[in-house]
Structure prediction request, 81 residues.
Amino acid sequence: MLFQASVGIDIQGDAVILAYLKGSFKGAKLAARGVYPIEGGLSDQDRVDRVERVIKEFLGGNRIPSTTLFLGIPREAAILR
Prediction:
């Protein structure tokens, strides 16, 4: 997958970490990254809204086109079968 771009999103209890990788002939290159804190004491809906806002601002601010996304969430927030 030459020149493929991807975005990694890691949602932690107190922060959202984002990384944008671009592919080239020399391999993957880190094009942008950011660590955005999430304030404590927010309701679940406010946390979801904050995470959504951070991701949209990161994608828009770095002019990232549609791409492959990789998402990491805390185990306690996942539903396992």
